[in-house]
Protein backbone atom coordinates (compact mmCIF):
# COMPACT_ATOMS: atom_id res chain seq x y z
CA UNK A 1 0.00 0.00 0.00
CA UNK A 2 1.24 3.47 -0.88
CA UNK A 3 0.72 5.48 2.32
CA UNK A 4 0.62 8.75 0.41
CA UNK A 5 3.19 10.56 2.54
CA UNK A 6 6.29 10.55 0.30
CA UNK A 7 7.97 13.96 0.35
CA UNK A 8 6.50 14.95 3.73
CA UNK A 9 8.71 16.07 6.61
CA UNK A 10 8.69 14.27 9.95
CA UNK A 11 10.25 15.04 13.31
CA UNK A 12 10.95 11.83 15.21
CA UNK A 13 12.07 12.18 18.82
CA UNK A 14 14.34 9.79 20.75
CA UNK A 15 15.09 8.18 17.40
CA UNK A 16 18.63 6.89 17.85
CA UNK A 17 17.43 3.46 18.99
CA UNK A 18 14.42 1.45 20.07
CA UNK A 19 10.87 2.36 19.11
CA UNK A 20 11.77 5.85 17.90
CA UNK A 21 14.30 4.40 15.50
CA UNK A 22 11.73 1.87 14.30
CA UNK A 23 9.32 4.70 13.50
CA UNK A 24 12.00 6.68 11.66
CA UNK A 25 12.96 3.61 9.60
CA UNK A 26 9.36 3.01 8.57
CA UNK A 27 8.80 6.64 7.58
CA UNK A 28 12.03 6.82 5.59
CA UNK A 29 10.99 3.63 3.83
CA UNK A 30 7.81 5.44 2.77
CA UNK A 31 9.78 8.33 1.27
CA UNK A 32 9.38 10.75 4.18
CA UNK A 33 12.17 13.22 4.93
CA UNK A 34 13.05 13.08 8.61
CA UNK A 35 14.66 15.08 11.35
CA UNK A 36 15.81 12.64 14.02
CA UNK A 37 16.80 13.79 17.46
CA UNK A 38 18.21 12.14 20.58
CA UNK A 39 20.64 12.99 23.35
CA UNK A 40 23.47 10.67 22.32
CA UNK A 41 25.24 12.23 19.34
CA UNK A 42 27.27 9.16 18.37
CA UNK A 43 24.34 6.75 18.31
CA UNK A 44 22.18 9.35 16.56
CA UNK A 45 24.71 9.88 13.76
CA UNK A 46 24.97 6.11 13.28
CA UNK A 47 21.20 5.88 12.99
CA UNK A 48 21.09 8.80 10.55
CA UNK A 49 23.67 7.08 8.34
CA UNK A 50 21.61 3.89 8.41
CA UNK A 51 18.48 5.79 7.43
CA UNK A 52 20.23 7.52 4.53
CA UNK A 53 21.44 4.16 3.25
CA UNK A 54 17.93 2.74 3.56
CA UNK A 55 16.48 5.34 1.19
CA UNK A 56 18.96 7.68 -0.53
CA UNK A 57 16.05 9.57 -2.10
CA UNK A 58 15.05 11.23 1.18
CA UNK A 59 16.77 13.81 3.33
CA UNK A 60 17.77 12.83 6.86
CA UNK A 61 18.86 15.49 9.35
CA UNK A 62 20.24 14.57 12.76
CA UNK A 63 20.02 17.00 15.69
CA UNK A 64 21.59 15.89 18.94
CA UNK A 65 19.90 17.39 21.97
CA UNK A 66 17.52 16.88 24.85
CA UNK A 67 13.95 17.13 23.57
CA UNK A 68 12.71 17.65 27.14
CA UNK A 69 14.35 21.10 27.19
CA UNK A 70 13.31 24.27 25.39
CA UNK A 71 16.70 24.48 23.67
CA UNK A 72 16.51 20.89 22.49
CA UNK A 73 13.04 21.38 21.04
CA UNK A 74 13.98 24.63 19.35
CA UNK A 75 16.99 23.04 17.65
CA UNK A 76 14.99 20.07 16.41
CA UNK A 77 12.16 22.22 15.08
CA UNK A 78 14.57 24.60 13.35
CA UNK A 79 16.10 21.72 11.39
CA UNK A 80 12.87 20.96 9.54
CA UNK A 81 11.44 23.19 6.78
CA UNK A 82 8.06 22.22 8.16
CA UNK A 83 6.68 19.45 10.34
CA UNK A 84 3.94 17.41 8.68
CA UNK A 85 4.43 14.41 10.96
CA UNK A 86 5.42 14.55 14.62
CA UNK A 87 6.41 11.42 16.53
CA UNK A 88 6.72 12.29 20.21
CA UNK A 89 8.91 9.99 22.23
CA UNK A 90 11.18 10.24 25.27
CA UNK A 91 12.84 7.79 27.58
CA UNK A 92 10.72 6.80 30.53
CA UNK A 93 11.60 7.67 34.13
CA UNK A 94 13.23 5.03 36.34
CA UNK A 95 11.23 2.38 38.17
CA UNK A 96 10.94 2.44 41.93
CA UNK A 97 8.70 3.02 44.94
CA UNK A 98 6.78 6.30 45.17
CA UNK A 99 8.03 6.69 48.72
CA UNK A 100 11.50 7.27 47.27
CA UNK A 101 10.51 10.05 44.87
CA UNK A 102 10.77 13.70 45.83
CA UNK A 103 9.19 16.56 43.92
CA UNK A 104 12.18 16.84 41.58
CA UNK A 105 11.64 13.28 40.30
CA UNK A 106 7.99 14.00 39.53
CA UNK A 107 8.81 17.26 37.74
CA UNK A 108 11.43 15.49 35.61
CA UNK A 109 8.92 12.80 34.66
CA UNK A 110 6.29 15.38 33.74
CA UNK A 111 8.78 17.41 31.72
CA UNK A 112 9.85 14.38 29.68
CA UNK A 113 6.65 12.43 29.25
CA UNK A 114 3.87 15.03 29.36
CA UNK A 115 5.01 18.63 28.98
CA UNK A 116 7.60 18.12 26.20
CA UNK A 117 5.12 16.41 23.86
CA UNK A 118 2.55 19.10 24.60
CA UNK A 119 5.09 21.82 23.81
CA UNK A 120 5.95 20.19 20.47
CA UNK A 121 2.29 19.85 19.56
CA UNK A 122 1.75 23.49 20.46
CA UNK A 123 4.60 24.43 18.12
CA UNK A 124 3.35 22.41 15.15
CA UNK A 125 -0.36 21.58 14.98
CA UNK A 126 -1.68 24.99 13.91
CA UNK A 127 0.69 25.10 10.94
CA UNK A 128 -0.37 21.54 10.08
CA UNK A 129 -3.99 22.66 10.10
CA UNK A 130 -3.20 25.65 7.89
CA UNK A 131 -1.66 23.29 5.31
CA UNK A 132 -4.54 20.80 5.59
CA UNK A 133 -2.45 17.82 6.69
CA UNK A 134 -0.87 16.74 9.96
CA UNK A 135 -0.17 13.57 11.88
CA UNK A 136 0.92 13.38 15.51
CA UNK A 137 1.79 10.07 17.13
CA UNK A 138 2.67 10.04 20.82
CA UNK A 139 4.55 6.97 22.01
CA UNK A 140 3.29 6.45 25.55
CA UNK A 141 3.07 3.05 27.27
CA UNK A 142 0.82 0.07 27.81
CA UNK A 143 1.04 1.08 31.47
CA UNK A 144 -1.44 3.89 30.69
CA UNK A 145 -4.09 1.19 30.28
CA UNK A 146 -2.72 -1.39 32.73
CA UNK A 147 -0.46 0.40 35.23
CA UNK A 148 2.75 -1.27 36.37
CA UNK A 149 3.34 -0.74 40.07
CA UNK A 150 7.07 0.04 39.85
CA UNK A 151 6.55 2.55 37.03
CA UNK A 152 4.55 5.08 39.00
CA UNK A 153 6.37 8.09 37.56
CA UNK A 154 5.63 6.90 34.03
CA UNK A 155 2.05 5.90 34.87
CA UNK A 156 1.28 9.37 36.18
CA UNK A 157 3.02 11.51 33.56
CA UNK A 158 1.86 9.52 30.55
CA UNK A 159 -1.71 9.35 31.83
CA UNK A 160 -1.70 13.14 32.06
CA UNK A 161 -0.63 13.36 28.42
CA UNK A 162 -3.35 10.89 27.45
CA UNK A 163 -6.05 13.01 29.06
CA UNK A 164 -4.76 16.15 27.39
CA UNK A 165 -4.66 14.54 23.94
CA UNK A 166 -8.23 13.29 24.32
CA UNK A 167 -9.43 16.88 24.29
CA UNK A 168 -6.95 18.37 21.84
CA UNK A 169 -7.45 15.74 19.15
CA UNK A 170 -11.18 16.45 19.01
CA UNK A 171 -10.93 20.18 18.40
CA UNK A 172 -12.68 20.89 15.08
CA UNK A 173 -9.90 23.34 14.18
CA UNK A 174 -7.57 20.34 14.02
CA UNK A 175 -9.67 17.25 13.28
CA UNK A 176 -11.64 19.25 10.71
CA UNK A 177 -8.42 20.24 8.96
CA UNK A 178 -7.02 16.72 8.52
CA UNK A 179 -4.78 16.86 11.59
CA UNK A 180 -4.91 13.66 13.63
CA UNK A 181 -3.41 13.00 17.06
CA UNK A 182 -3.15 9.46 18.40
CA UNK A 183 -1.24 7.60 21.08
CA UNK A 184 0.62 4.32 20.60
CA UNK A 185 0.85 2.25 23.78
CA UNK A 186 3.67 -0.29 23.55
CA UNK A 187 3.67 -3.35 25.73
CA UNK A 188 6.77 -5.52 26.00
CA UNK A 189 9.04 -4.60 23.11
CA UNK A 190 12.64 -5.73 22.86
CA UNK A 191 14.29 -2.42 23.81
CA UNK A 192 16.90 -1.15 26.24
CA UNK A 193 14.06 0.25 28.35
CA UNK A 194 12.46 -3.17 28.79
CA UNK A 195 15.77 -4.83 29.56
CA UNK A 196 16.51 -2.21 32.21
CA UNK A 197 13.11 -2.65 33.84
CA UNK A 198 13.47 -6.44 33.89
CA UNK A 199 16.97 -6.20 35.32
CA UNK A 200 15.66 -3.98 38.12
CA UNK A 201 12.90 -6.48 38.79
CA UNK A 202 15.37 -9.34 38.93
CA UNK A 203 17.59 -7.45 41.37
CA UNK A 204 14.63 -6.61 43.58
CA UNK A 205 13.27 -10.16 43.66
CA UNK A 206 16.56 -12.02 43.78
CA UNK A 207 15.56 -14.14 40.79
CA UNK A 208 17.89 -14.86 37.87
CA UNK A 209 17.51 -12.30 35.11
CA UNK A 210 16.83 -14.97 32.46
CA UNK A 211 13.97 -16.34 34.54
CA UNK A 212 12.44 -12.87 34.84
CA UNK A 213 12.80 -12.29 31.10
CA UNK A 214 11.16 -15.61 30.27
CA UNK A 215 8.27 -14.97 32.68
CA UNK A 216 7.62 -11.58 31.08
CA UNK A 217 7.80 -13.08 27.60
CA UNK A 218 5.12 -15.63 28.53
CA UNK A 219 2.73 -12.91 29.69
CA UNK A 220 1.81 -12.18 26.07
CA UNK A 221 -0.27 -14.75 24.18
CA UNK A 222 2.00 -13.98 21.22
CA UNK A 223 4.75 -15.67 23.23
CA UNK A 224 7.42 -13.12 22.37
CA UNK A 225 8.49 -9.51 22.70
CA UNK A 226 7.57 -7.05 19.97
CA UNK A 227 10.13 -5.63 17.54
CA UNK A 228 10.89 -2.00 16.81
CA UNK A 229 10.28 -2.49 13.09
CA UNK A 230 6.74 -3.81 13.54
CA UNK A 231 6.00 -0.95 15.91
CA UNK A 232 7.34 1.47 13.32
CA UNK A 233 5.17 0.01 10.59
CA UNK A 234 2.08 0.61 12.72
CA UNK A 235 3.23 4.17 13.42
CA UNK A 236 3.74 4.81 9.70
CA UNK A 237 0.19 3.77 8.91
CA UNK A 238 -1.16 6.19 11.54
CA UNK A 239 0.81 8.88 9.70
CA UNK A 240 -0.62 7.91 6.32
CA UNK A 241 -3.04 9.74 4.07
CA UNK A 242 -5.47 6.87 4.64
CA UNK A 243 -5.61 7.44 8.41
CA UNK A 244 -7.31 10.83 8.29
CA UNK A 245 -10.55 9.60 9.92
CA UNK A 246 -8.73 8.13 12.92
CA UNK A 247 -7.94 10.50 15.77
CA UNK A 248 -7.96 10.76 19.55
CA UNK A 249 -7.32 7.06 20.03
CA UNK A 250 -5.07 4.98 22.28
CA UNK A 251 -3.76 1.94 20.48
CA UNK A 252 -2.32 -0.87 22.57
CA UNK A 253 0.39 -3.00 20.94
CA UNK A 254 1.17 -5.73 23.45
CA UNK A 255 0.84 -9.13 21.77
CA UNK A 256 -2.50 -9.70 23.50
CA UNK A 257 -1.19 -9.32 27.06
CA UNK A 258 -3.98 -6.99 28.21
CA UNK A 259 -6.88 -9.30 29.15
CA UNK A 260 -9.79 -6.84 28.93
CA UNK A 261 -12.50 -6.38 26.32
CA UNK A 262 -12.09 -2.60 26.18
From TrEMBL:
Origin species: Rubrivivax gelatinosus (strain NBRC 100245 / IL144)
Protein name per UniProt: Short-chain dehydrogenase/reductase SDR
Xref: InterPro entries: NAD(P)-bd_dom_sf, SDR, SDR_fam
Upper taxonomic lineage: Bacteria, Pseudomonadati, Pseudomonadota, Betaproteobacteria, Burkholderiales
Family the entry assigns: Belongs to the short-chain dehydrogenases/reductases (SDR) family.
Amino acid sequence: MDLGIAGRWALVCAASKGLGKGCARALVGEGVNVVVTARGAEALEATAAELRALNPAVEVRAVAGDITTEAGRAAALAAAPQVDILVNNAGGPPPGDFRQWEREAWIAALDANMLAPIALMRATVDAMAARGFGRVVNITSGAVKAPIDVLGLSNGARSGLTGFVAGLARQPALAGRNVTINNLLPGAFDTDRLRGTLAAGAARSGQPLEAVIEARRRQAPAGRFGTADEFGAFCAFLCSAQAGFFTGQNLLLDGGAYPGTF
